[in-house]
Amino acid sequence: MRDFVSEPKHMIFTEDLKNMVHMAEPTDLDLILNMIKKFNNQNVEFRFGSFIFGPVVMRMFHFLDAPNEALKSFEDPENSGFYDQLVSYHILLDLLYSHEMFDDMYRVFEKVQEKQLNMTKFPKYPLILVLAACYKQNTPKSLEYATKIWTEMTSVGTVPVRRAATLFAALALNQGAPHIALESISMQKPHYVTIRNIKAIALAEMGRVDDALPVLKAVMDIDLPEQNQKHTFFDETISKVRSCVEKTENKDLQKEFENIEKALRDRDLIDNQTLDSLVTSEINLTNRNTRKLQGMPQMPYGMRKNRQNTRENMV
Protein backbone atom coordinates (compact mmCIF):
# COMPACT_ATOMS: atom_id res chain seq x y z
CA MET A 1 0.00 0.00 0.00
CA ARG A 2 2.90 2.38 0.70
CA ASP A 3 4.18 1.71 -2.81
CA PHE A 4 0.73 2.31 -4.32
CA VAL A 5 0.34 5.59 -2.45
CA SER A 6 3.75 6.90 -3.49
CA GLU A 7 3.48 5.87 -7.15
CA PRO A 8 1.25 8.22 -9.19
CA LYS A 9 0.43 5.51 -11.75
CA HIS A 10 -1.02 3.17 -9.12
CA MET A 11 -4.58 3.40 -7.86
CA ILE A 12 -6.18 2.74 -4.49
CA PHE A 13 -9.24 0.56 -4.91
CA THR A 14 -12.25 0.19 -2.62
CA GLU A 15 -11.12 -3.21 -1.33
CA ASP A 16 -7.62 -1.87 -0.59
CA LEU A 17 -8.94 0.87 1.64
CA LYS A 18 -11.56 -1.39 3.18
CA ASN A 19 -8.97 -3.97 4.21
CA MET A 20 -6.56 -1.41 5.62
CA VAL A 21 -9.23 0.35 7.67
CA HIS A 22 -10.34 -2.92 9.27
CA MET A 23 -6.80 -4.11 10.03
CA ALA A 24 -5.40 -0.75 11.13
CA GLU A 25 -3.11 -0.29 14.11
CA PRO A 26 -1.98 3.13 15.41
CA THR A 27 1.24 2.88 13.41
CA ASP A 28 -0.78 2.64 10.19
CA LEU A 29 -2.61 5.95 10.56
CA ASP A 30 -0.30 8.07 8.39
CA LEU A 31 -0.55 5.51 5.60
CA ILE A 32 -4.35 5.43 5.86
CA LEU A 33 -4.55 9.24 5.80
CA ASN A 34 -2.60 9.22 2.53
CA MET A 35 -4.71 6.38 1.12
CA ILE A 36 -7.92 8.29 1.87
CA LYS A 37 -6.58 11.38 0.17
CA LYS A 38 -5.46 9.48 -2.93
CA PHE A 39 -8.66 7.41 -3.09
CA ASN A 40 -10.85 10.51 -2.86
CA ASN A 41 -8.95 12.33 -5.59
CA GLN A 42 -8.83 9.52 -8.11
CA ASN A 43 -11.01 9.84 -11.17
CA VAL A 44 -14.51 8.92 -10.06
CA GLU A 45 -15.19 7.14 -13.36
CA PHE A 46 -13.15 4.22 -12.04
CA ARG A 47 -15.37 3.80 -9.00
CA PHE A 48 -18.31 1.50 -9.60
CA GLY A 49 -19.14 0.46 -6.04
CA SER A 50 -21.48 2.28 -3.69
CA PHE A 51 -19.52 1.67 -0.50
CA ILE A 52 -19.61 4.70 1.81
CA PHE A 53 -16.34 5.03 3.69
CA GLY A 54 -16.95 8.05 5.93
CA PRO A 55 -18.63 6.37 8.95
CA VAL A 56 -16.37 3.30 8.77
CA VAL A 57 -13.19 5.38 8.74
CA MET A 58 -14.47 7.56 11.58
CA ARG A 59 -15.23 4.41 13.60
CA MET A 60 -11.65 3.33 12.98
CA PHE A 61 -10.34 6.66 14.33
CA HIS A 62 -12.67 6.33 17.33
CA PHE A 63 -11.59 2.73 17.95
CA LEU A 64 -7.89 3.68 17.76
CA ASP A 65 -8.56 6.77 19.91
CA ALA A 66 -6.99 9.12 17.36
CA PRO A 67 -8.82 12.49 17.54
CA ASN A 68 -6.04 14.56 15.96
CA GLU A 69 -5.76 12.30 12.92
CA ALA A 70 -9.55 12.18 12.58
CA LEU A 71 -9.79 15.97 12.65
CA LYS A 72 -6.88 16.35 10.25
CA SER A 73 -8.49 14.01 7.73
CA PHE A 74 -11.91 15.63 8.17
CA GLU A 75 -10.60 19.17 7.60
CA ASP A 76 -8.32 18.29 4.69
CA PRO A 77 -9.73 20.07 1.58
CA GLU A 78 -8.57 17.13 -0.55
CA ASN A 79 -11.04 14.90 1.30
CA SER A 80 -14.01 17.02 0.32
CA GLY A 81 -17.22 14.97 0.29
CA PHE A 82 -15.61 11.92 1.87
CA TYR A 83 -17.24 12.49 5.28
CA ASP A 84 -20.54 13.97 4.11
CA GLN A 85 -22.72 11.72 6.28
CA LEU A 86 -24.38 12.68 9.56
CA VAL A 87 -23.03 9.53 11.21
CA SER A 88 -19.47 10.59 10.35
CA TYR A 89 -20.01 13.98 12.01
CA HIS A 90 -21.62 12.28 15.00
CA ILE A 91 -18.71 9.88 15.56
CA LEU A 92 -16.11 12.62 15.12
CA LEU A 93 -17.88 14.92 17.59
CA ASP A 94 -18.12 12.08 20.10
CA LEU A 95 -14.38 11.39 19.77
CA LEU A 96 -13.49 15.07 20.18
CA TYR A 97 -15.82 15.35 23.19
CA SER A 98 -14.10 12.46 24.95
CA HIS A 99 -10.81 14.36 24.59
CA GLU A 100 -12.33 17.71 25.65
CA MET A 101 -11.48 19.31 22.28
CA PHE A 102 -14.46 21.63 22.59
CA ASP A 103 -13.36 24.48 20.32
CA ASP A 104 -12.72 21.96 17.55
CA MET A 105 -16.23 20.59 18.12
CA TYR A 106 -17.75 24.02 17.51
CA ARG A 107 -15.89 24.24 14.22
CA VAL A 108 -17.10 20.79 13.14
CA PHE A 109 -20.69 21.63 14.12
CA GLU A 110 -20.58 24.75 11.96
CA LYS A 111 -19.69 22.44 9.05
CA VAL A 112 -22.74 20.33 9.92
CA GLN A 113 -24.92 23.41 9.69
CA GLU A 114 -23.35 24.54 6.41
CA LYS A 115 -23.86 21.15 4.75
CA GLN A 116 -27.43 20.63 6.06
CA LEU A 117 -27.17 16.90 5.39
CA ASN A 118 -30.52 15.08 5.34
CA MET A 119 -32.12 18.52 4.98
CA THR A 120 -31.56 19.42 8.62
CA LYS A 121 -29.51 22.21 10.15
CA PHE A 122 -29.85 20.89 13.72
CA PRO A 123 -29.37 17.10 13.65
CA LYS A 124 -30.25 15.49 16.98
CA TYR A 125 -27.04 13.81 18.13
CA PRO A 126 -24.50 16.36 16.85
CA LEU A 127 -26.63 19.02 18.57
CA ILE A 128 -26.55 17.13 21.88
CA LEU A 129 -22.78 16.74 21.66
CA VAL A 130 -22.09 20.39 20.90
CA LEU A 131 -24.36 21.49 23.77
CA ALA A 132 -22.51 19.03 26.00
CA ALA A 133 -19.29 20.76 24.96
CA CYS A 134 -20.80 24.13 25.89
CA TYR A 135 -21.89 22.70 29.25
CA LYS A 136 -18.43 21.27 29.96
CA GLN A 137 -16.71 24.54 29.10
CA ASN A 138 -19.13 26.41 31.38
CA THR A 139 -18.09 29.94 30.43
CA PRO A 140 -20.07 33.07 29.51
CA LYS A 141 -18.84 32.58 25.94
CA SER A 142 -20.08 28.98 25.78
CA LEU A 143 -23.48 30.07 27.11
CA GLU A 144 -23.61 32.78 24.46
CA TYR A 145 -22.79 30.22 21.75
CA ALA A 146 -25.39 27.74 23.07
CA THR A 147 -28.02 30.48 23.30
CA LYS A 148 -27.35 31.48 19.69
CA ILE A 149 -27.86 27.87 18.52
CA TRP A 150 -30.99 27.51 20.69
CA THR A 151 -32.53 30.73 19.40
CA GLU A 152 -31.91 29.79 15.75
CA MET A 153 -33.28 26.30 16.32
CA THR A 154 -36.50 27.34 18.03
CA SER A 155 -37.11 30.15 15.53
CA VAL A 156 -37.45 27.60 12.72
CA GLY A 157 -39.75 25.36 14.76
CA THR A 158 -37.28 22.61 15.65
CA VAL A 159 -38.23 20.93 18.95
CA PRO A 160 -35.08 19.87 20.83
CA VAL A 161 -34.81 16.46 22.48
CA ARG A 162 -34.78 16.31 26.28
CA ARG A 163 -31.03 15.77 26.70
CA ALA A 164 -30.28 18.86 24.60
CA ALA A 165 -32.72 20.91 26.69
CA THR A 166 -31.30 19.72 30.03
CA LEU A 167 -27.70 20.37 28.96
CA PHE A 168 -28.57 23.92 27.90
CA ALA A 169 -30.62 24.50 31.07
CA ALA A 170 -27.88 23.14 33.34
CA LEU A 171 -25.34 25.40 31.66
CA ALA A 172 -27.64 28.39 32.16
CA LEU A 173 -28.03 27.55 35.87
CA ASN A 174 -24.25 27.30 36.26
CA GLN A 175 -23.86 30.69 34.61
CA GLY A 176 -26.43 32.38 36.85
CA ALA A 177 -29.20 32.59 34.25
CA PRO A 178 -32.13 30.64 35.77
CA HIS A 179 -34.62 32.45 33.53
CA ILE A 180 -32.94 30.91 30.46
CA ALA A 181 -32.93 27.49 32.15
CA LEU A 182 -36.65 27.68 32.91
CA GLU A 183 -37.54 28.74 29.37
CA SER A 184 -35.41 26.04 27.76
CA ILE A 185 -37.32 23.21 29.49
CA SER A 186 -40.76 24.70 28.88
CA MET A 187 -41.55 22.23 26.06
CA GLN A 188 -40.42 19.14 27.98
CA LYS A 189 -42.63 16.76 29.97
CA PRO A 190 -42.40 17.63 33.67
CA HIS A 191 -42.27 14.10 35.08
CA TYR A 192 -38.64 13.47 34.11
CA VAL A 193 -36.19 13.70 37.00
CA THR A 194 -33.84 16.20 35.34
CA ILE A 195 -36.70 18.46 34.25
CA ARG A 196 -38.37 18.74 37.66
CA ASN A 197 -35.04 19.33 39.44
CA ILE A 198 -34.05 22.06 36.98
CA LYS A 199 -37.50 23.65 37.30
CA ALA A 200 -37.36 23.73 41.12
CA ILE A 201 -33.85 25.24 41.15
CA ALA A 202 -34.62 27.79 38.43
CA LEU A 203 -37.82 29.02 40.10
CA ALA A 204 -36.12 29.30 43.49
CA GLU A 205 -33.09 31.15 42.11
CA MET A 206 -35.38 33.58 40.27
CA GLY A 207 -36.90 34.52 43.63
CA ARG A 208 -40.13 32.62 42.94
CA VAL A 209 -39.86 30.32 45.94
CA ASP A 210 -43.64 30.18 46.35
CA ASP A 211 -43.78 28.58 42.86
CA ALA A 212 -40.87 26.22 43.55
CA LEU A 213 -42.43 24.62 46.64
CA PRO A 214 -45.46 23.16 44.76
CA VAL A 215 -42.98 21.52 42.34
CA LEU A 216 -41.33 19.77 45.31
CA LYS A 217 -44.68 18.86 46.82
CA ALA A 218 -46.11 17.42 43.58
CA VAL A 219 -44.08 14.18 43.70
CA MET A 220 -45.76 13.18 46.96
CA ASP A 221 -49.10 12.98 45.16
CA ILE A 222 -47.78 10.22 42.88
CA ASP A 223 -48.42 6.76 44.26
CA LEU A 224 -45.72 4.50 42.84
CA PRO A 225 -44.67 1.94 45.45
CA GLU A 226 -42.00 0.39 43.21
CA GLN A 227 -38.56 1.56 44.33
CA ASN A 228 -37.25 2.09 40.80
CA GLN A 229 -40.21 4.28 39.79
CA LYS A 230 -40.11 6.83 42.59
CA HIS A 231 -40.18 10.46 41.53
CA THR A 232 -37.26 11.93 43.44
CA PHE A 233 -35.31 15.14 43.94
CA PHE A 234 -31.58 15.53 44.23
CA ASP A 235 -30.14 16.45 47.61
CA GLU A 236 -28.34 19.36 45.90
CA THR A 237 -31.71 20.63 44.63
CA ILE A 238 -33.16 20.63 48.13
CA SER A 239 -30.08 22.49 49.41
CA LYS A 240 -30.36 25.18 46.74
CA VAL A 241 -34.08 25.70 47.32
CA ARG A 242 -33.47 25.83 51.09
CA SER A 243 -30.86 28.56 50.58
CA CYS A 244 -33.30 30.61 48.51
CA VAL A 245 -36.08 30.11 51.09
CA GLU A 246 -33.82 31.36 53.89
CA LYS A 247 -33.03 34.51 51.92
CA THR A 248 -36.73 35.45 51.85
CA GLU A 249 -36.80 35.72 55.67
CA ASN A 250 -40.44 34.66 55.39
CA LYS A 251 -41.24 32.48 58.41
CA ASP A 252 -44.32 30.92 56.81
CA LEU A 253 -42.40 29.91 53.66
CA GLN A 254 -39.56 28.54 55.78
CA LYS A 255 -41.96 26.45 57.84
CA GLU A 256 -43.72 25.15 54.72
CA PHE A 257 -40.38 24.20 53.17
CA GLU A 258 -39.29 22.38 56.33
CA ASN A 259 -42.52 20.35 56.29
CA ILE A 260 -42.07 19.49 52.59
CA GLU A 261 -38.43 18.48 53.08
CA LYS A 262 -39.30 16.26 56.06
CA ALA A 263 -42.10 14.58 54.11
CA LEU A 264 -39.79 13.97 51.14
CA ARG A 265 -37.10 12.45 53.36
CA ASP A 266 -39.62 10.30 55.24
CA ARG A 267 -40.80 8.87 51.93
CA ASP A 268 -37.24 8.37 50.68
CA LEU A 269 -37.79 10.79 47.77
CA ILE A 270 -34.43 12.56 48.08
CA ASP A 271 -31.35 10.88 46.62
CA ASN A 272 -27.66 11.64 46.20
CA GLN A 273 -27.60 11.85 42.42
CA THR A 274 -26.47 15.12 40.88
CA LEU A 275 -27.74 17.06 37.90
CA ASP A 276 -24.24 17.01 36.45
CA SER A 277 -23.98 13.20 36.56
CA LEU A 278 -27.33 12.79 34.79
CA VAL A 279 -26.92 15.34 32.01
CA THR A 280 -23.41 14.03 31.17
CA SER A 281 -24.24 10.32 31.39
CA GLU A 282 -23.79 8.24 28.26
CA ILE A 283 -26.80 7.76 26.01
CA ASN A 284 -27.34 4.04 25.46
CA LEU A 285 -29.55 3.26 22.49
CA THR A 286 -31.45 -0.02 22.66
CA ASN A 287 -33.14 -1.66 19.72
CA ARG A 288 -34.62 -5.13 19.69
CA ASN A 289 -33.64 -5.58 16.08
CA THR A 290 -30.05 -4.40 16.54
CA ARG A 291 -27.58 -6.91 15.17
CA LYS A 292 -23.94 -7.13 16.09
CA LEU A 293 -21.86 -5.00 13.75
CA GLN A 294 -20.16 -7.11 11.14
CA GLY A 295 -16.55 -6.48 10.21
CA MET A 296 -15.72 -3.87 12.86
CA PRO A 297 -13.94 -4.88 16.10
CA GLN A 298 -16.22 -5.04 19.13
CA MET A 299 -13.51 -4.44 21.75
CA PRO A 300 -11.80 -1.03 22.18
CA TYR A 301 -8.25 -1.01 20.91
CA GLY A 302 -6.60 -0.53 24.31
CA MET A 303 -8.48 -3.48 25.84
CA ARG A 304 -7.72 -5.65 22.83
CA LYS A 305 -3.98 -4.92 23.09
CA ASN A 306 -3.97 -5.59 26.83
CA ARG A 307 -5.69 -8.93 26.32
CA GLN A 308 -3.31 -9.81 23.50
CA ASN A 309 -0.28 -9.00 25.69
CA THR A 310 -1.72 -11.13 28.50
CA ARG A 311 -2.12 -14.09 26.16
CA GLU A 312 1.46 -13.69 24.89
CA ASN A 313 2.81 -13.56 28.45
CA MET A 314 0.90 -16.73 29.32
CA VAL A 315 2.43 -18.49 26.32
From TrEMBL:
Alphabetical list of InterPro entries matching this protein: PTCD2 (IPR034629)
Segments of this protein annotated with the region Disordered: 293-315
Gene Ontology biological process terms, A to Z: mitochondrion organization; regulation of mRNA processing
Superkingdom, taxonomy of origin: Eukaryota
A GO cellular component annotation in the UniProt record: mitochondrion
GO molecular function annotation: RNA binding
Name of this protein: Pentatricopeptide repeat-containing protein 2
Organism expressing this protein natively: Papilio xuthus
